Amino acid sequence: MTSPASRIFCAVDTTEIDSARRTAAQVNGAVGGIKLGLEFFIAQGPAGVRAVIGENGPPLFLDLKLHDIPNTVASGIRSALPLKPAFMTIHASGGGAMMRAAADAAAEGGAERPKILAVTVLTSLDEDDLRGVGQALPVADQVTRLALLAKESGVDGVVCSPAEVARLRAACGPDFILMVPGIRPVWSATNDQKRFMTPAEAVAAGADHLVIGRPITASADPAAAARRIVAEIEEAA
Length: 237
Ligand SMILES: O=C(O)c1cc(=O)[nH]c(=O)n1[C@@H]1O[C@H](COP(=O)(O)O)[C@@H](O)[C@H]1O
Fold this sequence. Notes:
single chain; TIM Barrel; 11 helices
């Protein structure tokens, strides 16, 4: 069985190498891996990623949320292969051909290939926001439609909000990876997240992995915050 700690990717959202290294060191062993995203990658590039993760570091979730024409997204994935990320993200709304191209490019990494996850509807969006961009579907329907398209297109899983986990687990089967941000323990601030749940609720609903940033990184003691989250998941199991 997957241990609760190994399910957690700590979102290290910073532009600074020193700060990222410090957080990664603090949570080492208390979480399953480190997520580095756009703000870090744009500021520090591949060398910065290597400086944080090192040769035998924790599993890397490289969250660049690629969204472009298929050829460009495939090249972007290929360019990241030397960093050996465990997971990378693309936007499902880029379409089936784009997702297929990303999956094919990732396969070139062989046994160490990154698993490709498609972002469905961002957890910072609610129905009003979707209407604002011309989407009439309820959020859950839009997420399900994108997840099924992602599965058909050969990607490994999706990023979705906790609110959609149970529905996607039923629709996409047991092997489709559900990576779930929008996680808020009852004792932490909600910040800009709109569709969120506690860590234990998300795991009970069927999440494979949890992406947790500020509840851990903004804590005075990140390792203690991560351990508290793990304990809450274990107690609820
Ligand atoms: O792809 C993601 O990881 C992601 C997708 C999404 O819909 N919502 C979302 O919050 N995220 C990421 O998950 C992390 C959440 O961080 P916290 O809100 O600080 O826990 C951030 O790094 C976001 O970029």
